[in-house]
Design brief:
With about 180 residues, the chain is mostly beta strands. It has one domain: Porin (Beta Barrel). The protein has 2 helices and 10 strands, in the order H-E-H-E-E-E-E-E-E-E-E-E. An 8-stranded antiparallel beta barrel has the order 1-2-3-6-7-8-9-10. It has a two-stranded antiparallel ribbon with strand order 4-5. The termini are far apart.
């Protein structure tokens, strides 16, 4: 039952975001594309086996990125993002033996809601499928991301986020990420 209720979350995001879509007659003053690069830091048990990661992300939302001249009329908009995070494994020693944890890569495709509380920033809640890749193995799962952004200029911003990813039967992985992003 837990697994089935967890899968209802993307449906909730889809319905919630469709209600917040922008009208076709309204023109927002932002831009629609966002690409970011940053560092990810494993939290909890994941930090016992992996050091840090590098993150690459592309996001789209209808004219809601960048420093805007006015806030959008509708409080919520739809956002979609895809990305990859690659984490480097730690080396562990036990007496004369050493073990190196394999590197871990997450691929994700998220959809969700985006809110612009001010003209130079946004908050977002997204979720969707993930694919975990490690040492010749792979497994599908689900992830949820809570993030935000503050625009330094019209096209450049800083994006901190917190992500939870659940892959297969393993424990959930928690990650904190800080990205610099470019809006166009």
């Amino acid at each position: 039952m837990k697994k089935k209720s967890f899968l209802l979350l993307p449906c909730f995001f889809l319905v919630f975001c469709c209600m917040g879509q922008d009208d076709k007659n309204q023109t927002n003053s932002g831009v629609s594309n966002n690409i970011g690069v940053g560092l990810s830091f494993p939290l909890g048990d994941f930090s016992n086996t992996h050091t840090f990661g590098v993150s690459l992300n592309y996001a789209w939302s209808n004219d809601r990125y960048g420093k805007m001249t006015a806030k959008p009329l509708k409080p919520l908009g739809f956002t979609f993002n895809v990305g990859v995070d690659h984490y480097f494994g730690k080396e562990e020693s036990s007496g004369p033996y050493t073990y190196e944890y394999p590197n871990y890569t997450y691929l994700h495709a998220y959809g969700g809601a985006l809110h612009n509380p001010c003209t130079n920033g946004y908050l977002e809640l997204t979720g969707g499928p993930v694919l975990g890749l490690w040492d010749g193995g792979s497994e599908f799962g689900f992830g949820v991301n809570l993030g935000g952004s503050f625009g330094v200029s019209r096209n450049i911003g800083i994006n901190p986020s917190f992500t939870l990813m659940k892959i297969g039967e393993g424990d959930a992985q928690f990650v904190g990420t800080i990205r610099g992003h470019y809006n166009f």
